[in-house]
From TrEMBL:
Taxonomic lineage: Eukaryota, Metazoa, Chordata, Craniata, Vertebrata
PANTHER family hit by this protein: ORGANIC ANION TRANSPORTER (PTHR11388), SOLUTE CARRIER ORGANIC ANION TRANSPORTER FAMILY MEMBER 2B1 (PTHR11388:SF87)
Region (Disordered): 1-30
The protein's name: Solute carrier organic anion transporter family member
NCBIfam families: oat
Gene, per the UniProt record: Slco2b1
Species: Rattus norvegicus
UniProt family annotation: Belongs to the organo anion transporter (TC 2.A.60) family.
Keyword Transmembrane helix in record: yes
Alphabetical list of PROSITE patterns matching this protein: KAZAL_2
Topological relation to the membrane, as annotated: Multi-pass membrane protein
Domain Kazal-like: 472-532
Major localization class: membrane
Spans through the membrane: 42-61, 81-102, 109-130, 177-196, 217-245, 265-289, 361-383, 395-421, 433-453, 549-576, 597-620, 640-662
Amino acid sequence: MPDRSTKATMGAEDIHERKVSMEPRDSHQDAQPRGMFQNIKFFVLCHSILQLAQLMISGYLKSSISTVEKRFGLSSQTSGLLAAFNEVGNISLILFVSYFGSRVHRPRMIGCGAILVAVAGLLMALPHFISEPYRYDHSSPEDRSQDFEASLCLPTTMAPASALSNDSCSSRTETKHLTMVGIMFTAQTLLGIGGVPIQPFGISYIDDFAHHSNSPLYLGILFAITMMGPGLAYGLGSLMLRLYVDIDRMPEGGINLTTKDPRWVGAWWLGFLISAGLVVLAASPYFFFPREMPKEKYELHFRQKVLAGGASIGSKGEELSSQHEPLKKQAGLPQIAPDLTVVQFIKVFPRVLLRTLRHPIFLLVVLSQVCTSSMVAGTATFLPKFLERQFSITASFANLLLGCLTIPLAIVGIVVGGVLVKRLHLSPMQCSALCLLGSLLCLLLSLPLFFIGCSTHHIAGITQDLGAQPGPSLFPGCSEPCSCQSDDFNPVCDTSAYVEYTTPCHAGCTGRVVQEALDKSQVFYTNCSCVAGNGTISAGSCESACSRLVLPFILLISLGAAVASITHTPSFMLILRGVKKEDKTLAVGMQFMLLRVLAWMPSPVIHGSAIDTTCVHWALTCGRRAVCRYYDHDLLRNRFIGLQFFFKSGSLVCFALVLAILRQQSREASTKATVKSSDLQEL
């Protein structure tokens, strides 16, 4: 029998022969083109499209928030809560998804989440199909000829009766209203739940199976395409809101509204159907991707030179981390490994959480990001409505301004911030200085916004303007003989005196004339007893005297957004470089959790509540306050911009404290180094 050395030699030769025989087979396999669903590049393309469609469907509600308010009689506080409610579903499951992420079939989970997002989009559009057609006045639905007579000055005996009695109002209408609102809140919750696995599973899947040198490029492409989602959502809203809400069930004879009429309601529901269809198409490939695909073995050729230069950047980053390592508080807690059991995870989590929260840099940077995110959430939700009210522009044009100017400049700001950090090799102290400078410039750009706008024009019976000439005060009781419904809304404008009336009836008008033009018709009301000389007034609200100021206003807003976005990457680097290496994953997760809980959830509600406090005339539905019809423009501007100014100031203060702490730590480190060198010299 052969001895052990012979066996070892034979075994080594067998292994060597086996390796040699396998090498050409592997190279032959690598030479063969992989299937489409075995290619990480195709996964990056699919995931970019999916996240783009997901952000479109989640951002579309913000583009049509004022339209949804008018259609269903919601206050700004309620609509703000609706816009923020998707965060409830997201927060409720994010920890479970993060924990079980490596134990499930990630592509299929992404596909299931995307299907749930699409279902949520369909649910958001459902209230349109189960509700009655939109009626923009309180006339009898059986007789369209009363649409105009209901708003004119008629004797009490000739006035049309209200379409709904108090009994039907309290039972049928209120039940339907609560049902519609409940459906939309349920849809927003499902939207948040469905979006939970999409981004974290997709990023981890790309990072696991892409070449380590290609992964940053793929993630950069993913984020670049994804950032276009909100802009496309506002663009889609701009297109859809030009169409009438009941375009699928237009009344006989058409409608007599234009997009500039305050009673106009656009096809808000159509954008949800389009976005949901895109999400379904983008989700289809995920059910064909494998649970694990072969890891990418080759680096992209055009990246080699870039990585050669980037090696110095990576080494510099390591040096910066090692320099600041003595400044971190050492602790002997174990690293949270992905193979921990649930019980072990629960035991370790509180200690690591407390250690991370006690880190002053982490806490201050997250608080500054909370302030910035609160500003962004409020702006994204209510800036279109603010522009509509303040400058008398259409909802479509307001969305167009945000989608084509504000959001692209914000994206440019994020890119510029990342380029500055990379090219200049910024240290943590320099990152904090850049963040402080960006916050300061953003704050300064918001100061002129307090003065760009106009006061509310004179609205008869609602606002009192001493300069209004003439008004109902000059003609007391001019509309008393008319049987005007208090909650009717068909605004007309006396252009000569710049006075608006809620209906022709309240202006004492008894006649109506339509002037036909080439492409549109203009409606005038005649014999108005509340107008000087029983004159004629035009249909529609009075135009704002400062409509021309909307472009300077939105330009300042966009520049402020771009400057604030520059701080995005530097502040993120402060978090990554400021915590222990084993706590980075937890720190990033806590960062996003705190941003959702402290910013994205409460901020739309806070902004909506502030907007509601500036309302001077509410529409009433079944005895309850519904949508606001008129605002105090000066108060609205001061409170909306004031909230923005408050959050920007909070971010500035936090970054100033971060810079002060880093400077103090740098002084202490240099002092210790000097003491050590002097001690060595003495020895």
